[in-house]
Specification:
The protein is α/β, with parallel strands linked by helices and 256 residues long. It has a single domain, classed as NAD(P)-binding Rossmann-like Domain (Rossmann fold), CATH 3.40.50.720. The protein is 38% helix and 14% strand. It contains seven helices and seven strands; from the N terminus they run ααβαβαββαββαβα. α4 (78-89) links the parallel β2 (49-54) and β3.
Length: 256
């Protein structure tokens, strides 16, 4: 079944390319509106070794944009729900689900050099900055999502080096914070958009159904802003596409 499921991928990538996809190890930090779509895209394409890291549970407010969020999954741990879905796509996949929040305090639990690809799809400013610092200096390929909220125009989604991102408030805040901290940060690709729309109603409080791995309320969100699925999905698919493109080009350059 799995050989047949990857027929179209193999036509494009060849046997060596599919083998490279299946061998690659990916870790995704943040399995929400961006990270959930990234994970699904990678596994459908042929990635078999994937680690999911997120400290939240699914809330009803996630249903409008997060892949694993349905009326049936509200209250479930996000990484567990996502793992269940990915195993329906490929039962042979090695999917590690870590109900955890990556930050400075617990970063020693993670050896980022174990991974070929590291995906940043988290929205806590301090944690994101720290992951950028560590991920961009690791041995693997690091890619990051800037802010996907307050946008509706899919044609304005772009990819650029982190230091060249323009018109994204989150990118600007991150660069300012990292410079202030004197962090050593390498070059890496980001998905971003320069569109910034206003919230048209007052921002609701973060639902109290979201908890962290130790049972305390998660209060580390950057902010609560309006966001919709076609933008968050494009961000997630683009992150996955950067990884898949890198594997494709690496295999074919090697062959040439």
């Amino acid at each position: 079944m799995q050989n047949e499921a990857l027929n179209r991928t193999q036509l494009l990538f060849g046997e060596a390319g599919v083998a490279a996809l299946q061998k690659a190890k990916v870790i995704i930090f943040g399995i929400g509106g961006v990270g959930s779509w990234c994970a699904e895209s990678l596994v459908r394409t042929g990635i078999q070794h994937i680690t999911l890291v997120d400290g939240d549970r699914i809330a009803a407010s996630n249903i409008n944009r997060q892949l694993h969020a349905t009326t049936a999954t509200v209250g479930q741990v996000k990484v567990s729900a996502m793992r269940d879905r990915l195993l329906l796509i490929n039962p042979d996949a090695d999917v590690q689900a870590l109900h955890d929040i990556f930050d400075r305090e617990n970063s020693e639990r993670y050896n980022l050099d174990e991974y070929d690809y590291i995906v940043d799809a988290i929205d806590s400013l301090q944690a994101k900055a720290f992951l950028i610092e560590k991920g961009s200096m690791s041995r693997g390929v690091f890619v990051s999502s800037m802010g996907a909220a307050l946008k509706v125009d899919p044609t304005r989604v772009r990819v650029a080096d982190f230091w060249d991102v323009q018109g994204c408030p989150l990118g600007s805040r991150l660069r300012k914070l990292l410079r202030k901290q004197g962090a050593q940060v390498g070059h890496f690709q980001c998905v971003y958009s320069d569109e910034v729309l206003p919230n048209l109603v007052s921002s609701p409080e973060v639902p109290q159904t979201l908890d962290t791995a130790d049972g305390t309320w998660n209060t580390k969100k950057v902010s609560t802003n309006g966001s919709i699925v076609h933008i968050t999905a494009i961000f997630g698919f683009t992150l996955a596409g950067l990884i898949v493109k890198n594997i494709y080009e690496r295999i074919h350059q090697t062959k040439n």
